[in-house]
């Protein structure tokens, strides 16, 4: 995984066949400059200077065939993303040219970059810490403007600073305690009360960091909503009309199975993943049975269910059957087709508090659904107000271990055990905190983190 010394190359932009106006190939490492000199001609009196744009042609040094007209940016170490020499070729978009340019770089001695290897080098060369590297990956994958804003805060160190400071404060306390153990007679005694206060402050800071995890999870994964109901109540119509009216940029992913269609929407900066499921009903047809099973699975993984009924038909035995299976989940009842009939809602189970009347066809009531979803999110505290950074799953797991270490120290103090017991837990907290920022990392942890990055990042 760690291959410093080699010059790496990758396509840095997303390339789509026949699309994209610019495609970037980049190189990082000692040979980057030499490779660029070999394959790029900058006509006229252009100087090869760092951080200046050169205009010219990329050509194969073997047969001097011109591959593309391009721009070149040279960023000499240490003023670059990786702190190594970097060269970027800004080529025409599409897939063929950038692949040829990449091949040329490989022919001239570069090796193909692995997932996240540019960012890994930035980390190894001390330009960024691990939380910043993770934020870089997150800004690429951001699902809403707020998510990207939070990732940007992470890149700027909003998350790593409190963690680094906490770790430094732990180190300071550790050395104070240790010097008492080593030179007991020479130093004034360190009162257990003072240590206790400090640890309680540390614990408070950890809890504050931990409290951002739900928001982080929501922004990263989105709220999962499943639309359920028997066939023909208008589930697909609802999702269609909703997708069209949701003002955010909508990406419709083709469903992973033929029974479930997934749409990604954004409500007030919160990514929402809506699943339109196959209708639930009793069936003896084998294929339909599988669809219904998938529906149940999707329902059980959802954070919120939109149980949909038809206003013309109202609540029937079939709805009662479906409801039995999902009543442990949060449910909003959607009464669709109110353009056709004023529904009788008197027999709806009283446990269902939230009922929204809509017409999918006439695009009525969709905003009420969005409002109810937002209320649900706020009521469940899934998003904090004024968030400026959030922790991710990996950081959450680590911080929980740190929290336990601090709680153990507090127990130790309350039980009036000797100082040595405190130092054991304090030292372990320091080590664990180092895993977040990358001050304490193993190669396997690094490859686990960076393997989730895209190639060229
Ligand atoms: P699904 O099986 O639950 O996904 O239901 P569809 O979305 O396929 O809709 C079933 C039928 O109901 C279609 O013919 C729709 O045009 C119709 N439909 C859906 N929503 C409405 C509505 O709000 N008003 C009216 N009048 N018809 C609707
Ligand atoms: Zn449908």
TrEMBL record:
Pfam families: MMR_HSR1 (PF01926), MnmE_helical (PF12631), TrmE_N (PF10396). GTP binds at residues 232-237, 251-257, 276-279. The lineage of its organism: Bacteria, Bacillati, Cyanobacteriota, Cyanophyceae, Oscillatoriophycideae. Binds 1 potassium ion per subunit. This is tRNA modification GTPase MnmE. NCBIfam families: mnmE_trmE_thdF, small_GTP. GO terms for molecular function: GTP binding; GTPase activity; identical protein binding; metal ion binding. Homodimer. Heterotetramer of two MnmE and two MnmG subunits. Belongs to the TRAFAC class TrmE-Era-EngA-EngB-Septin-like GTPase superfamily. TrmE GTPase family. The keyword Cytoplasm applies. Exhibits a very high intrinsic GTPase hydrolysis rate. Involved in the addition of a carboxymethylaminomethyl (cmnm) group at the wobble position (U34) of certain tRNAs, forming tRNA-cmnm(5)s(2)U34. K(+) binds at residues 232, 251, 253, 256. Keywords: Cytoplasm, GTP-binding, Hydrolase, Magnesium, Metal-binding, Nucleotide-binding, Potassium, tRNA processing. GO terms for biological process: tRNA methylation; tRNA wobble uridine modification. Residues 222-378 form the TrmE-type G domain. GO terms for cellular component: cytosol. Mg(2+) binds at residues 236, 257. Its EC number is 3.6.-.-. It is found in: Cytoplasm. The keyword Transcription regulation does not apply.
């Amino acid at each position: 995984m760690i291959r410093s010394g080699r010059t790496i190359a990758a396509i840095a932009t997303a390339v789509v066949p026949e699309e994209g106006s610019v495609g970037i190939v980049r190189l990082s490492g000692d040979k980057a400059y030499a490779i660029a000199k070999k394959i790029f001609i900058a006509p006229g009196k252009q100087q090869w200077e760092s951080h200046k744009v050169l205009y010219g042609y990329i050509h194969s040094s073997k047969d001097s065939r011109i591959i593309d007209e391009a721009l070149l940016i040279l960023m000499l170490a240490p003023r670059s993303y990786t702190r190594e020499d970097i060269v970027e070729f800004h080529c025409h978009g599409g897939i063929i040219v950038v692949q040829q340019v990449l091949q040329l770089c490989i022919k001239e001695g570069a090796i193909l970059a692995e997932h996240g290897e540019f960012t890994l080098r930035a980390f190894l060369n001390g330009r960024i810490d691990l939380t910043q590297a993770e934020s870089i990956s997150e800004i690429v994958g951001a699902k809403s403007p707020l998510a990207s804003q939070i990732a940007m805060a992470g890149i700027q160190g909003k998350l790593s600073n409190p963690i680094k400071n906490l770790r430094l404060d732990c180190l300071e306390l550790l050395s104070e305690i240790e010097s008492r153990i080593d030179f007991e007679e020479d130093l004034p005694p360190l009162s257990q009360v003072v240590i206790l206060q400090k640890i309680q402050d540390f614990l408070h800071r950890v809890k504050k960091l931990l409290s951002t995890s739900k928001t982080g999870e929501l922004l990263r994964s989105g709220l999962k909503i499943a639309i359920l109901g028997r066939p023909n109540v208008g589930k697909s119509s609802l999702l269609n009309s909703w997708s069209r009216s949701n003002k955010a940029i909508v990406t419709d992913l083709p469903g992973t199975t033929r029974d479930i269609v997934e749409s990604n929407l954004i409500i007030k900066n919160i990514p929402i993943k809506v699943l339109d499921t196959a209708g639930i009903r009793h069936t003896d047809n084998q294929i339909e049975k599988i669809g219904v099973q998938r529906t149940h699975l999707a329902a059980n993984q959802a954070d919120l269910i939109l149980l949909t009924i038809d206003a013309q038909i109202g609540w029937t035995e079939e709805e009662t059957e479906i409801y039995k299976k999902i009543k442990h989940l949060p449910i909003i009842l959607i009464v669709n087709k109110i353009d056709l009939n004023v529904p009788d809602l008197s027999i709806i189970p009283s446990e269902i508090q939230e009922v929204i009347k809509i017409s999918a066809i006439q695009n009525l009531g969709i905003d009420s659904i969005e409002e109810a979803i937002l209320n649900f999110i706020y009521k469940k505290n899934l998003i904090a107000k004024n968030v400026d950074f959030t922790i991710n799953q990996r950081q959450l797991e680590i911080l929980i271990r740190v929290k336990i270490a601090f709680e153990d120290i507090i127990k130790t103090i309350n039980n009036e055990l000797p100082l040595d017991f405190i130092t054991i837990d304090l030292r372990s907290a320091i080590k664990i905190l180092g895993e977040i920022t990358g001050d304490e990392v193993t190669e396997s942890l690094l490859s686990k983190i960076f393997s989730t990055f895209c190639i060229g990042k």
